[in-house]
């Protein structure tokens, strides 16, 4: 970190443009807080919230465990950076963490952003700019124009005058799970919109035991046992489930 501070200060002193830093892989939570503070003190204008987390290639199950990404005559499974949609929730976590604990530095949100709606989400979480590197791999360069068009349309429809009106507006809803939460007052549960539900069964076949198939073919959710975790919301293919306050 000391070397990074020296290099950042040298860059800031040498140029007349804002200097930002994109950390190496696995520089995420909670290290991102200390890193962002150091960069802010060194004069950096922005920090990228994440780079691809490290992982290993899966084994080929029909080839006695040989690695999927092995090189010719070099059968090892190295730690490699992983990108794509799976990175998005790492991106959200680190964006919110830096925005809350190091508000003096701007954030470029990177990781798993593969559609225009994701851009708006990270802006609302405190990012000032958005990197679409994963999006290019999944959607191609057209994602840039699609995202700009969506953002302009979204702002007109939702009554936002400028992009700055979006930045960080979701942070006020983020809080740790601690004694400040009144679990009785804040009781929430999942609710099914039968008008949208296609009765696919993915929610009652999932890990959560709360949703069950009703006599009419729609999911039935026991509000007493539902903790409002949101897993069924995440896996529903038609957005027919939402979390509501009871």
UniProtKB/TrEMBL annotation:
Q: Which GO biological process categories is it annotated with?
A: thymine catabolic process; uracil catabolic process
Matches recorded under Gene3D superfamilies: 3.30.70.20, Aldolase class I
Q: Which SUPFAM superfamilies match?
A: 4Fe-4S ferredoxins (SSF54862), FMN-linked oxidoreductases (SSF51395)
Molecular function per GO: dihydropyrimidine dehydrogenase (NADP+) activity; NADP binding; uracil binding
| PROSITE patterns found in the cross-reference section | 4FE4S_FER_1, 4FE4S_FER_2
Key words, A-Z = Oxidoreductase
**Stretches assigned to the 4Fe-4S ferredoxin-type domain:** 188-210, 217-246
InterPro entries found in the cross-reference section: 4Fe4S_Fe-S-bd (IPR017896), 4Fe4S_Fe_S_CS (IPR017900), Aldolase_TIM (IPR013785)
Q: What is this protein called?
A: 4Fe-4S ferredoxin-type domain-containing protein
This chain's source organism reads: marine sediment metagenome
Source species taxonomy:
unclassified sequences, metagenomes, ecological metagenomes
């Amino acid at each position: 970190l000391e070397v990074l501070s020296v290099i950042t200060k040298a860059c800031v002193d040498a140029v007349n443009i804002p200097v930002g830093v994109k950390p190496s892989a696995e520089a995420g939570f909670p290290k991102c807080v200390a890193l962002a503070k150091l960069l802010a003190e060194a004069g950096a204008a922005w920090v990228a919230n994440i780079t691809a987390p490290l992982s290993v290639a899966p084994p080929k199950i029909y080839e006695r465990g040989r690695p999927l990404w092995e090189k010719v005559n070099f059968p090892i499974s190295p730690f490699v950076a992983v990108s794509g949609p799976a990175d998005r929730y790492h991106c959200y976590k680190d964006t919110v963490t830096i925005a809350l604990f190091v508000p003096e530095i701007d954030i470029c949100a990177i990781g798993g952003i593969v559609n225009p709606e994701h851009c708006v989400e990270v802006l609302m979480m405190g990012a000032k700019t958005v990197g679409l590197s994963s999006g290019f791999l999944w959607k191609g360069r057209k994602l840039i124009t699609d995202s700009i068009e969506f953002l302009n349309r979204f702002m007109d429809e939702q009554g936002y005058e400028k992009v700055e009106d979006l930045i960080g507006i979701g942070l006020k809803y983020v809080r740790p799970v601690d004694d400040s939460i009144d679990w009785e007052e804040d009781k929430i549960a999942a609710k099914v919109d039968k008008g949208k539900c296609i009765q696919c069964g993915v929610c009652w076949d999932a890990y959560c035991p709360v949703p069950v198939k009703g006599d009419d073919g729609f999911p039935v959710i026991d509000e007493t046992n539902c903790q409002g975790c949101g897993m069924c919301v995440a896996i529903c293919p038609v957005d027919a489930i939402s979390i509501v306050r009871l």
